[in-house]
Design brief:
300 residues; Nucleotidyltransferase, domain 5
Length: 300
């Protein structure tokens, strides 16, 4: 008799939160305080009052939930009553009030704080002592100004533990997101979210096109397998690497290498229609990883 497979992420957490590290807490406060302060004007524009559960409190609460692995709002309320967390001192707040604040607090405020923090981390990265980069990344940076990764992901099903989510059908996915990450710094450049989980990656193509500039190398998730999108990237002088689909039809135009370790060829792919224009790309395949074959823009 086969046992039902369980999702450990959805199992009820019974453990206690991690102990707060004073050094890390102090570092987080130094990093986030300027970003939080810079959003106070926007906070007031939204008509929010600067009471106990304000922007500074909510940033600390969200960070504590994630960093200290707090099981839920009930345990977070207990921490708040007993000892406080991060830069928030021990405070008496009801669990109902805290739960309601999480449901109504504008997500755009947390997004603005996050993006300002990322901008600050990017600046810090340029001044700190850099770790050695892999040879492949150094080689790419010698020919491109930026090397970015573009990836689309479907968010997991909602837990439905809150009363506000109880009417949502079980198994409803939380949405679709796409992220652009700088391969050099490992920091996000941009994040987009769409509420419909069935959204195709191609729906993020216009966002990517508006973001990228010439002399950029993109490492594309295979969800961005769209010839018209590739053509638009080439027109913007943006190079890209992506995996080729199994059974893709193409013509070999020139062979650069046909050795045991590497097969490197110039190919022509596409039917000439509006959605599949004819493109001249380069296809590389390593015998050490037979399942991996890549297409990338070949610019003379």
């Amino acid at each position: 008799m086969s046992r039902r497979k369980t999702n450990r992420d959805h199992a009820k957490k019974k453990h206690h939160p991690l102990i707060e590290n004073e050094v890390i807490a102090s570092h987080l406060q130094a990093l986030l305080s300027p970003a939080i302060l810079n959003q106070q004007a926007f906070y007031r524009q939204l008509g929010l009052r600067n009471r106990i559960l304000n922007l500074s409190f909510m940033v600390a609460a969200v960070l504590t939930l994630l960093w200290r692995n707090v099981p839920g709002v009930q345990e977070l309320t207990r921490l708040l009553h007993k000892e406080g967390f991060l830069w928030v001192e021990a405070t008496q707040v009801t669990q109902k009030a805290l739960s309601q604040r999480f449901l109504t607090f504008p997500a755009i405020l947390l997004e603005k704080v996050f993006k300002e923090l990322v901008s600050h981390l990017q600046q810090q990265w340029t001044f700190r002592q850099k770790r050695p980069l892999p040879d492949s990344v150094n080689f790419a940076l010698s020919r491109f100004e930026k090397v970015w990764i573009v990836d689309g992901s479907t968010l997991e099903a909602l837990f439905r533990k809150l009363k506000s989510l109880e009417d949502i059908p079980p198994g409803t996915l939380a949405g679709k997101m796409a992220t652009v990450i700088d391969l050099t710094t490992r920091l996000p450049i941009e994040i987009w979210l769409k509420t419909k989980a069935a959204t195709s990656d191609v729906k993020f193509e216009s966002d990517v096109l508006n973001l990228v500039s010439a002399k950029t190398l993109l490492l594309l998730d295979r969800g961005f397998y769209h010839f018209q999108f590739w053509q638009q990237l080439i027109e913007k002088k943006v190079d890209f690497i992506t995996r080729i689909k199994k059974g893709a039809s193409f013509q070999i135009k020139e062979v650069f290498s046909n050795s045991y370790g590497l097969r490197d060829r110039l190919i022509v792919i596409g039917s000439g229609s509006k959605n599949t224009p004819i493109l001249t790309l380069r296809r590389a395949r390593s015998s050490f990883s037979q399942t991996m074959a890549f297409l990338f823009d070949f610019s003379p």
